[in-house]
Amino acid sequence: MGQAGWLALLFVPASAAPWVFVVMGVLEMSVPAFAEREGRTAWHPHHIAERYGLFLIIVLGETISAATVAVQSALDENDELGTLLPIAGGGLLLVFAAYWIYFAVPIHLHLRSNTQAFLWGYGHYLVYGSAAAIGAGIEIAVEESTGTAHLSLFAASACATVPAALFMFTVWLIHSRHQKRGPAQQLVLPVSSVLVLACTFAGELAVLAAGLVASVTVVVGAVLTARQGTALEA
């Protein structure tokens, strides 16, 4: 049935093709839940979590690569290291923080049922999409700083800060909050995502400010976790 629907895209009018694509996309993503109604397929939570984590590493690696190429290309055409350095530094801090934030908790302990696994798995569309968009946003910020982007400074800054904030909030929503204990730990990522969004108003230092906020987020999260471990041992 699904294959027939995709083949139908070859015959529907061009104006209707986007709507058919959306419908087929929803149906395609519904297949696992539909197929598992009669009985659960055996799967290993730790292995699934590892696969998703490895793919995120690939996405973050591509993000660093895209940002590096953008900065290098800008340096080749413009001698503006002082303008580009804050963007490059902030971008690296965002990516490194994203890696730490995602892998700080053992999510396989949460994946005990198909319902939990499906919500977690499909939520990664936002995780991966926002992680990739961080790199694209850094590229746009670089282009704006060299005068080659047809965007305002605010819009270019938002291209980096919005996906970074979305990444933080989504990771907390589907991933980290299941292992957090107490309001302090639970509030770290949601509050940080709002602060990263606020960095959009920092002008030329928006990306650097967002990277610093993300770095502080990691430090605060680590300190709170260490304190909880100390309290449990006591």
What does the model show?
The chain folds into two domains: 34 residues; 189 residues, I/LWEQ domain, CATH 1.20.1410. The chain has eight helices and no strands. The radius of gyration is 21 Å and the shape is flat. The mean pLDDT is 86. The chain is an all-alpha fold and 234 residues long. α3 packs parallel to α5, α4 runs parallel beside α6 and α5 runs antiparallel to α6. Helices cover 77% and strands 0% of the residues.
Form type = flat
Distance linking N and C termini: 59 Å
Q: Compute the CA-based radius of gyration.
A: 21 Å
Q: Label the CATH architecture of the largest domain.
A: Up-down Bundle
CATH class category name of the largest domain = Mainly Alpha
> How many domains is the backbone divided into?
2
* Range of strand content: under 5%
Order of helices and strands: HHHHHHHH
How many beta strands in the DSSP annotation? 0
